[in-house]
Specification:
Radius of gyration: 31 Å
Strand order of the largest sheet: 10-12-11-8-9-15
Structural class: alpha+beta
Distance between the termini: 27 Å
Number of helices: 16
Number of strands: 19
Length: about 500
């Protein structure tokens, strides 16, 4: 009977408990976001940047991103075969470390960073990394990124006059266009547009792509009638420590035919001018990279390195089967690969955006794009469990406060129940039932609203319906259990207070 009375009171007082129900709904929305949305992104999230980088997760051969696990007091490093506490020291990337960090985080070269052991780039053994990751079915591809610094010149026409131009700090990049297209990040479809990519028959051909947005930096495009680029590649040597060195006094010249152009659009900004006009600008990640087929790059590498194997890299990309879990996977890989910096592409792009990078803006106010004078950043501490608990407690506290107010107005009703034989436990059961009903109603509302977004994220990643159903049921059980436990815990206060009330106290006070 007292269960029924609890449900009846919850229904009767629903209009007066709107704030408590909404508080429970907001708490459920936050909790559901923490456990359902924080682990990844929709399948098309950051698609342009992921396509350009050819990866969902990046592994860099340098420890410039420091996470909470690196700050543990028991953290050790191996020196001379013996383990000792990790020593922190300044390090920096030399110009010989050629990778996408040159445009994503250039301060690592100019200013340096604090790192455990103070070491710079440690070349990654690609086959060893593949063996380490072979047991994880979530990682579908291991894609090393190979670069070479080059001098690049070309011809262009201006006012019917032929001129020669040199692209400073140019980089030659290997790209396997066939493998990338089959993996879902189709470079040709997403970034090349109306021009074309090298065909499978040109995998060893001296053909390439340049950034179409170089004109934004003031460089004239190559002459379309003679789209031939002259590239000078320095001699390559590798030291005993695996570090790569380049000798520009011994260069080899190559002629590369320009078959297309690419453009990496990474966003847009809108703003209002002092005159009240609304402006808009598309943002492009402009890179001085000449992209050539992986086979042609391997041939050039063999020629300038004396035939050394191309088995180490300073940047390796990982493709995952589902972007909905990419942050969870990246977190696990940081523990598995403690000597390297592991970061998801979305998180790496956010780190660049804080610095106003990697896009070049020419109209938008600079303050809209972030600052460039940013100190070394680390990976954030995972506080999701802490927020989860705090949100539960705040929502339950709001519910308990609402109940205290409601039951204080029903003292006479409770006194009558006591007078006709109700026990204290019966009254407590009635009040707890009312608290749980109101709390779970709000929790169900909040969970449903956010779970729709989480379900869309999973559907966009082509996750099977059965797996989506299991994940939804698990998340529902966690959120509802946490909400019910917190509501029952804080509901004990008004329940205990009213359970101690006697009919004589009610008659005396009234």
């Amino acid at each position: 009977m007292f269960f029924v009375l609890g449900f009846t009171n919850a229904r009767r007082n629903l209009g007066r408990s709107v704030m408590a129900v909404l508080g429970a709904a907001v708490a459920a929305m936050i909790m559901t976001s923490i456990i359902s949305l924080s682990g990844g992104y929709p399948a098309q999230g950051w698609i342009e940047a992921r396509t350009f980088l050819g990866a969902d997760i990046l592994v860099f051969a340098t420890k410039h991103l420091v996470g909470p696990e690196d700050l543990r007091p028991d953290k050790v490093q191996v020196v001379g075969g013996a383990a000792e506490p990790a020593r922190w020291a300044m390090a920096s990337l030399s110009p010989n470390v050629v990778c996408d960090l040159m445009t994503l985080q250039p301060e690592l070269y100019a200013q340096g960073f604090i790192s455990p052991g103070g070491a710079g780039a440690r070349p990654i053994d690609i086959e060893d990394l593949r063996r380490t990751l072979s047991g994880d079915p979530r990682i579908t591809q291991v894609v090393p990124s190979f670069f070479l610094p080059i001098r690049l010149t070309y011809e262009y026409v201006l006012d019917d006059q032929l001129y020669h131009a040199e692209l400073p700090q140019a980089v030659l990049r290997a790209r396997d266009f066939t493998v990338q297209a089959s993996g879902g990040l189709d470079f040709g479809q997403l970034l090349v547009g109306d021009s074309r990519c090298p065909t499978p028959d040109e995998q060893h051909g001296l053909v390439g792509l340049l950034d179409a947005s170089l004109g934004l930096l003031g460089y004239h495009p190559p002459n379309p009638d003679t789209p031939r680029l002259m590239v000078w590649v320095p001699a390559v040597s590798i030291g005993a420590d695996g570090q790569v060195s380049y000798d520009f006094l011994r260069e080899t010249a190559y002629e590369i035919d320009l078959v297309g152009q690419y453009a990496t659009r990474t966003g847009a900004v809108s703003w209002q001018t002092p005159k009240g006009d609304y402006m808009h600008e598309d943002l492009f990640w402009v890179t001085p990279q000449l992209q050539i087929p992986a086979g042609a790059f391997a041939d050039i590498w063999a020629g300038v390195s004396g035939g050394m194997p191309l088995d180490h890299a300073v940047q390796v990309g990982l493709r995952v089967d589902r972007l909905a879990y990419v942050e969870d996977i990246a977190t696990e890989l940081r523990r598995l690969l403690p000597a390297y910096s592991v970061v998801s592409v979305p998180q790496q792009m956010e780190l660049a955006h804080v610095r106003g990078l990697p896009e070049a803006s020419f109209s938008a106010p600079i303050e809209m794009l972030g600052g460039t004078d940013i100190p070394q950043t680390g990976l954030p501490v995972d506080l999701s469990r802490t927020f989860f608990v705090l949100v539960c407690l705040v929502a339950a506290l709001l519910m308990a406060t609402n109940l205290l107010f409601l039951v204080s107005e029903r003292r006479k009703e409770i006194g009558i129940l006591k007078a006709i034989g109700a026990r204290g436990t019966d009254v407590a059961l009635m009040i707890l039932t009312e608290a749980l009903t109101l709390n779970l109603l709000g929790t169900l509302l909040g969970f449903g609203l956010i779970r729709i977004l989480a379900t869309w994220t999973m559907i966009s990643n082509r996750i099977p319906i059965a797996e989506i159903g299991r994940a939804t049921a698990n998340d529902f059980a966690v959120v509802m259990s946490a909400a019910a436990l917190a509501a029952a815990l804080f509901g004990m206060l008004p329940a205990w207070q009213m359970a101690r009330l006697t009919s004589m106290e009610v008659l005396r006070n009234d």
